[in-house]
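Q&A log
Question type: sequence-to-structure
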Amino acid sequence: MADLILHPPRAQKIPHPVTVHGETWDDPYFWLRDKDNPAVMEYLRAENAYTDAMLDHLKPLCRKLYQEMVSRINETDVSVPEQIDDYFYYSRTEAGYQYPIYARKKDHLEADEEIILDVNQLAEGHTYCHVGQIGVSPDHRWMAYVLDTTGYEDYTLYIKNLQTGELLPDVISGVKTDLQWTNDNQALLYTVSDDAMRSCAVYQHVLGDDPAQDQQIYFEADECFSLYLQKTRSKKYFKLISQSALTSEVRILGADQVDQELMLVAPRRTGRRYELFHHEATFYILTNEDAKNYRLMKTPEDAPGREHWQDVIPHRQAVKLDDVMVFKRHLVLWEREKGLIRIRIISLVQGDDFYLDLPEPTYTVYPVGNSVYDKTTLRFAYTSLVTPRSIFEVDMDTGERTLLKQYEVRGGYDASQYRSERIYATARDGTEIPISLVYRVGMTLNGKNPLILYGYGSYGISSEPYFNSDLLSLLDRGVIWAIAHVRGGGELGEEWHENGRFLHKKNTFTDFIDCAEHLIAQNYTNPAQLAIMGGSAGGLLMGAVINLRPDLFRVVLAKVPFVDVVNTMLDASLPLTTGEYEEWGNPNDKVYFDYIRSYSPYDNVVAQDYPEMLVTTGLNDPRVHYWEPVKWVAKLRDLKTSDNLLFLKTNLNAGHGGASGRYERLKETAFDFSFLLDRLGITA
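Response status: OK
Response body:
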């Protein structure tokens, strides 16, 4: 052990000059990108061995946390069934098994169960298993599903005869997760990816045909755009959506039989995004055209072109129209105001509307199921930092609400013993940044509490406050859990996103620092007891803030962190790069290159003290390649001036999302939490 403490792994430095825009610098850890190089794998295993040895003392705490987490969940549980025609579809889990079982019953819920897909059986012989999508044909006879067994998000499509239980020989590799059946049950549409893993084309497969003969329906040639496939809730049309970060374009195709021409709704125009929803003889259109926070428009079904669009819900400065759901007799609007979603239901028959009452100061709400067009009820999930996930069904005519299921927290959870609140930190430019918090009732705000501050802040994605029973293992040990809703996310509308991307990206980092300082100033915590964590683009946030203010944080957990931004964004052959020019900027333009290089965590590691850190990655991650965090750790080891511990943990059998099985995911969480607690001085 002493030898390991004195000698953590050191990656070899091999000169690798890089020249861009006339500037040349050395990237001595570039060689770590080649996982076919035995020396690279040797280094990853050495880092894992170092982490395992140095954190061996955490095993009792880790086991205890894992047992706590498992004890709170109903290991054998079932989802709320959804009725589609004569069948009730649902998923369930069984104690001791890692993966869900998908099943159905015919005519009534007391009927015999028919298992249509047991993911546990698919997982046999694999260290990773993920079913990305399941699609049952309209006549309920066939089921298609896509399966990834590496974590690299490289899916294979299978088709199962639900009457006989047999798989068809029609196996299609290299697909993405979008798939839709034609209404005649004879064919399905699916998407495929290019070498950069960009979803780029839609194909049609006719049952029984050789997949090599599948017909290409559409190919998206622009490398900055990805192609997505959906079906309208009315089931009348397929939607082929070409989309970049800033721009979208929709084509429609009749879903009865794919023997018609694609119809382009409105040609792409940089900066304009729109979505299409079918209703009887009308298309509703959600768009940001001249409406930063989006507006709702409509157009005749037989004349969907832009010149026919008419306003239905105008743009509002303080309210973002996040999403729209169209039923035969109702419109459901998901509106975001002051960072929280409101559900507005509009009758398309009577014209009246109402909002659902959602009382807590901070919460999360989202739709669940709702596959059937001709329904008068809406299902949604509601949760908050103190309220377990609850499935409600509301009558869209009367507003009457029914609780269908609240997911049980075993062990006697009492929500009244926890307090959730939302406060605001003032950023250095005067902007008010929301912070969501939860902690045990009775906690004294004396500046001496351990606190974990989470952040993300990219892509316009909102960090929603939801219930996670795993967090009880932190809260019951006196830890405060906090979420910094920094700019770059979507919590406060599209402007919130715009002010945290491109040449405003540094607002994300300074917002997070200002939130941390506010929590300290308000006596929630102090730097010696402040932990921070984030993953993926949130890992970029972690890397940036510790370069700027390493003194502010005691310990850092960076999961699959996007930290080698310059190199990644300069390499158009990598998955996601070209599609992300509209989030970070294209470094082939010197203005963006200079700006990205000024904050990219890997490029800005310097000789200074850094907090204690645990960095995790997955060898098969196609989104943030393993070599980004690995190079970052190597450089930090070389330059950091403190004795604070630095650990790298590489999952050699997983991708961006970590382990695929639910028990393995809980073990990963227990390991992460045990590290944070131990570094915060909580050892039991």
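Response note: The radius of gyration is 25 Å.
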